Amino acid sequence: MFKKIKNAILGATLALGLYAGTVKAEEPKFNLGYNALETAVDTERTSEGERTIRNRLFTNVSLDIKELEIGYQGLNEVNDWDSDSYFGRNRFMFGKVDSPLKLLIDTKANKKEIFDTKVGARYSGLMQKLGGYGNIDMSLDDEALNLNLFYGKPLGKGFSVEFSQDITKPYGEDASYYTELQLNKSLTDRISLFGRLEMAEFDNDKKKYLVGLSIK
């Protein structure tokens, strides 16, 4: 079943690409979204008495070719400048310009390989209706279904709050959960302070608190 769904989505993506290739009347438009480098420190010390430093790079760009939008969103991070700790989640979106619904290819990678690739859809209309920003991603492969929710809300006076919930449900097995809750405070147009809670499986023993600086 997954192969049929994957082939249908990739086929639709190819069709959109071929359509865009026939458009000559307008020049492509390049758009920059939220692009930033976050550097944060874990508030809890390791067994060696040190604090882990987390560097996370956000990349959001898109290309409009008349009515077609091709988007890329990346989250790539390392701990303590160690490339062995690298984790990346990179998503590619395809759809009509200004449409809240997009085709989605969702990948995860470590230093050695891209170890997970799922296909599905992204919807951003609900978060806008709730007065904020964000999206709902749903994707699958032949092993599991993934649901990712992201919602951000400006609070005024330079503050904003962001919530992310990731749920992966392997077929025939229990689901796994990963949660992030982040409070931001803008200092300038490009620099912000933030504090973030990270928690796996809703387990207090698997939570972390980080504080850091974001530079756009």
- β-strand percent reads over 45%
CATH architecture: Beta Barrel
Q: SS-based structural class? A: mainly beta
Spatial extent as radius of gyration = 19 Å
* Total strand segments: 13
User: At the third CATH level, what is the topology name?
Assistant: Porin
Q: Quick one: CATH class? A: Mainly Beta
End-to-end separation: 42 Å
Proportion in helices:
10-25%
What's the tally of helices? 2
Largest sheet: 12 strands, antiparallel, barrel
Question: Order of strands across the biggest sheet?
Answer: 2-3-4-5-6-7-8-9-10-11-12-13
Outline type: globular
Q: Which whole number gives the mean pLDDT?
A: 91
Number of structural units classed as domains:
1
- Sequence of secondary-structure elements: HEEEEEEEHEEEEEE
List the SSEs and their pairings.
Layout: H1 2-21, E1 29-32, E2 36-45, E3 51-65, E4 68-79, E5 82-96, E6 101-110, E7 114-123, H2 125-129, E8 133-140, E9 144-156, E10 159-170, E11 176-186, E12 191-200, E13 207-215
Antiparallel strand pairs: 1-3, 2-3, 2-13, 3-4, 4-5, 5-6, 6-7, 7-8, 8-9, 9-10, 10-11, 11-12, 12-13
Explain what this protein looks like in three dimensions.
The chain has about 220 residues and is mainly beta. It has a single domain (about 1-215), classed as Porin. The protein has helices spanning about 1-20, 125-130, and strands at about 30, 35-45, 50-65, 70-80, 80-95, 100-110, 115-125, 135-140, 145-155, 160-170, 175-185, 190-200, 205-215. A twelve-stranded antiparallel β-barrel has the order 2-3-4-5-6-7-8-9-10-11-12-13. The longest helix is centred in the first third of the chain and has 20 residues, at about 1-20. It is globular.
